Each structure stands twice: as structure tokens, then as C-alpha cells.
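FAQ: What does the model actually see?

It sees only this:
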Amino acid sequence: MSDSFSPQPTIEKPEPELPRFDEDKRGTLRALVEAFVSLFIAVLLFRTFAAEGYMISTGSMAPSLLGYHKRVICPTCGITFPFGTAYDTDDDPDAVITNRSRAICPNCGQPGIDVSDVPRNHGDQLLVNKQAYLYQSPNRWDVVVFRNPARPTEAYVKRIAGLPGERIQITGGDVIVDGQIARKTFSQQLATRILVDDQNFRPSRDEAYRSHWQIIDPDPADPATQEDSSWTTNTSSFRMRSDHVRRPDNDPITWVEYHHWIRSGGMQETSVSLVSWPEDLDPRSVPNSGLRFEPATHQFSVTGALPIEVARQLIDLSEEEPFQAAVRDLYAASHIVPVMDHYGYNPDEEIGTPNPVRDLMISSRVFVRGGAGQFLMEMTDGATRFTLVLDALRRQISLFVDPLLEGQALNSADAEFGPRSDPVASVPWPVQLEKRGVTVEFSLIDKQVLVAVDGKELFPAWTFEFPAGVAAPRIPVRFGARGLDVEVSKLRLYRDIYYTDSRSRHAINRPYSLKENEFFVLGDNSPVSHDSRRWENPVVHRSYLVGKPFLVHLPSKPGNLRIGSREMYLRMPDWERIRFLR
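And it is asked to produce this:
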């Protein structure tokens, strides 16, 4: 007997060989099954622990994030804007945007745009980082996705306004935290700004429209101010050609002012000077259009925008030139109003009385082609004039702050020659100004002055206080130049979110105190958003936070497919709307 283990010899019978094709087929099928199972597990784990997609249904965060909407092209100025529409289920309190067939262009104000035949588009789809707040808390102004405290099975998206332990209140459109205004950084302003006017889109043939940017010619009685000192404009830019240098600081500036021209309506009070009422005009024959004349003060006034038909009728009723001139002045002035918190996304009848907005940002491309003068940008909140001076002679950019006298406007004669005070901040002249031009962004948002060139802030934020009782300015922004060959293009005006207090119950008349792990949230589309201001329980507990959206992905737009006489709408990819969220 052997004391070692050894295999016994055997006779092997060859097994029948399977066709190679079947072996490959079986291996491929198994690989596909394993890949599918692995992908399913990976997606399940990814959605459970890392990120998940959500689609927005309502318009509470418009225009930064869109719910179901129609993409409308204004027939007058050509700009494309979203117009909110109802989604499939209307049982959510956020679904206040209903199906309407008429829209108002937020850029040129064209009313009555028929959108009944415009196909409906789906809302933005968000990819949400579910780990974002696992080890850290949200920051103010973060966009967050959370479970609805009243209906935990539903997910909402809003913006964080109040943090745990704070006392929060909405006053004058601003968020006040512990008695101080909550200010946004420059990047946060870019994320929340709302377009008011885009110079690249303006009507070319429309009697009821007047361009918002108006060139104010120098004094025609002074020939010295006419030499090489006037702006010219085309459909997309303004240009001044001037390279003369006498005394740049003492030369008058030629300005281009922003006039927020409305076509009709409004409740603004406008007055012009009229020495006396025309002798050939019976006051009883004047149309009943809110017109008034006060002999003691020599003021001719109107409430709202004077209709052009009424203005023409008044001019036909009297042959006295002073009166006709006053009517023309009153017509023009009455159509210029402060910037309002209008949303092209919303039907006007659903948002209540509009509010004047002081918090504005001007953005433009500035290209200095020659000369040794100055380019200036000015903004005002109605109480103070803030002037940004790009000085080619001194090779620096400076910020000036000058208080306005009571009743003084931005375009007052004393500002014709620019600021007289010392600058509060100065930085060197960027060489790109003369090589290719730079994008200048200048804002008065949240009672602070911010200036950026090509996306980089020039100075630390200059904060200021605002006195009570000062009306919002009708001419809030202007730019001008002297002694320069300069081009201004890509001119846009934006506004900040104005947080409304209508139909609200929390943090309006008095501060609301947040406890530990409680957050106060607001929607960007403030007039229609149901958020912490209006909920019965205004807070979102930390445990309800789902995560932070970081990407708008897989957006779609309506496409049409025509087969014979039939036309079908399809969902097509909209690559332009894919973006990372700030």
C-alpha cells in the first residue's frame, strides 16, 4: 500500500465541443445582465446617497429657475422670454400661474402678446447634491431642495433667506436679519439679478415705444460743447469719437440717460411748469384724464401716463405755444417711471400693485479706442449719486460718492461736469480697456456699491444707509464721456429681487425668530411664490433638507414635426439652458 497520495490513472472521454458562436452569445448575454444589474445598483446608490434629479413644476423661482412655461418671442422687440403656465396638477399652492393667452414683454413693455398657440415647455430639471449639507449648513441665498413640511412626500425648491437663531423681517423689498440688511456678494447678485432692459432688443418701428437709453445733447447755444462731443447709436451700441484734450475735468460731459419708458397706465404723479392757462381753452373741454392745473403754483399735472390721443387733442384745442410745449413735456415726462418689480413670467392681473425698485445693476462692454478724457457711469438711489470714473489721463478708475440735495435728480445741472468730491476708492487703469474692451458691472444692490471688470471686483463693497421718505428716482442710471473715442455695447440693466409683503403673514410687520436647525426660505418670483412668508408653519427644519442643486440638466424645448397636414410637438434638447448653478 502506498503511503503517498497519487491520483489513479483514468481514461478521459472527449466532451462534445459546443459551437463557438453559442459560447460567445452566452458570455455576451451574461455580461449584459451583469452590467445592467451593476448599473441599476450604482444608480440606486447614487440616487440614494449622492445625487438625484428633480423637475420643477411651478414658477416660484422664476426667472432663475423655470417651471412649466412657454418660450415667447416678443413680436415688437424680438427678445425671447419665459411666460409661466399651469402644470398638470393644480392642487399645489405654488401653482398660482394659470393658463393665460396674453403676455407682456418684460423688455419693451409690449402688452397683449398672444401666446395661445405657443407650445408649453417643461420646467427645469435639477441635479441635486444630497451630500451638500451632511457636514455643513446652508449659506444665506443658497438654492435648496427640501421636503414640504406640510406634505413630506413633495419636494420644493427655494432660496435660503434666514438661518438658525436669526430674527428675520421683510422691509421695503429687502431681507433684514437681526436689524441689519442681508447683503449679497457679487456672485450672488449675478445669480439673482433680473433683466430689465437689453439694448440689443429694441423696437425699430413702434410709435408707442421710446428707446430707454436717451442721448442728452450738450447745450446747443454753446458751440464749444458741440465739437466732437456727441454720441451716435446704432441697433446695438453707442459711440463717441473725440480725441481732443483741453481741460478734461472742466469740459461738460455728454450723457446717455436711462428712461424707464412705459406705454400706458401707472399711478405716478407728474408735473410740468405752465405760467397760465390758455385764454382760448375752456377747461370744461379738457378730456377727463387725470389732468390738473394749479394757478398758484403754475403746475400742470397728470396722474399716470398721459395717453398720446389726449395729448394730441389738447394741442389741437389751443393755439398758444407755451401750452402746447407744456403738453408735449407732460406727455414725455409722465411716461418715465421708476423701475418696477415686473415679471414677464407672470400675468399682470395676478401680482397686485407693482413696487418701485432702487436696487439696480448696469452691465456693458466698454472699449476705449483713443483720447485722454474720461468715461463715467452714474447711479442713484434717489438720495446719493454714485459715480464711477474711468480716467484715461490719470490711468485709473475711481469711485465718487456725492449726496443729492432734497428734490435733486441725477441729471441736475450741477452734475454736468462730473463729481467734485474726492474719490472714496481708486485702482489702476486696466490695459484691456484699450486692447479689446472690458465688461463693466456696476450695482447698487442691498445698499452697497459693487464694481467689477471682467467679473473681478475692483474695490471692497461700499455700504451706505438710505434715508426714509425719499422717492425712487425716475432717472436712476446714466453714462457719459468727454475727450474720448469710446464705444459702449452689450448694454443691459438688471434689478434685484423685490421681496413683497402682500398676502404674507410671517416676518412682515415684526421680525420672526428662528430656532435651532430652522431655516426661512423665499422664492425668487416673490409676488406669486408660496414660501415661509405665507405658510402656516413658516420654517423648514434641517431634517427636511434634501440637498443643494448644482446643475440644470436635460432641459428641453418644444419642437414640431409636420407629417402632411398634421403637426406634432416633440420635446427637443435645449443645450443652451444646461448650466451650473451658482
